[in-house]
């Protein structure tokens, strides 16, 4: 697709990191308004935003190094720091970000379930754009397919070129968009008319996201 975005003859931006950065900015804006809606501390919200950014980045990178390619990085340890070349795992980032956030909220004596509900719709929105970033960079590609919506990536991406592949990032984007709509209308009371408890929105998001990942 478009692994780099050219802004001139000699200047370009990696599409993956550019979209991820914009998605994170969008998430912070969304977090701001949801924090106001739930009448929680904006200071705590911004602290969480920083914790999630740093914890997610480090966790995703470490999980890639330790789990996906330990042999390569044992022989090339300095390449661990070459993050611009890619190599991040969502679950590693999610684990570190959630663990650090829960520790912080506990230290601040915050209502953890309330904050989980605040973040419930933010997660699928951010993940949606994260998968769009992988679509542009050619990472996270699927198997070969003869279906008419298969994607043929050009040379220069992580995906094999010249062969139609399942557009798995698009599949994931559809699932995440669906998860967001379910959470959004559930919060408004359009779904699940029974009385909701704190944390229900977040756990509903986990179910929707997990189902999409499984498929």
Secondary-structure class:
mainly alpha
Order of helices and strands: EEHHHHHHHH
Shape: globular
Low-confidence stretches: none
Distance between the termini: 24 Å
Task: Quote the beta fraction.
Answer: under 5%
The overall average pLDDT, rounded, is 89
Note the total helix count.
8
Question: Main sheet?
Answer: 2 strands, antiparallel
Read across the widest sheet, the strand sequence of neighbours is 1-2
Mind telling me the C-alpha Rg? 19 Å
Number of strand elements: 2
Please give the share of residues in helix: 55-70%
Could you explain how this protein is built, in words?
The chain has a two-stranded antiparallel ribbon. The mean pLDDT is 89. It contains 8 helices and 2 strands; from the N terminus they run E-E-H-H-H-H-H-H-H-H. It is an all-alpha fold. Helix content is 62%, strand content 3%. Helix 1 (15-37) runs antiparallel to helix 6 (122-137) and helix 2 (42-68) runs antiparallel to helix 4.
What's this entry about, in short?
The chain contains 8 helices and 2 strands, in the order ββαααααααα. With 215 residues, the chain is mainly alpha-helical.
What brief labels describe this structure?
215 residues; mainly alpha; two-stranded antiparallel sheet; 8 helices; globular
Question: Could you outline the blueprint of secondary structure elements for this entry?
Answer:
Elements: E1 4-6, E2 12-14, H1 15-37, H2 42-68, H3 70-75, H4 90-107, H5 112-119, H6 122-137, H7 168-188, H8 200-214
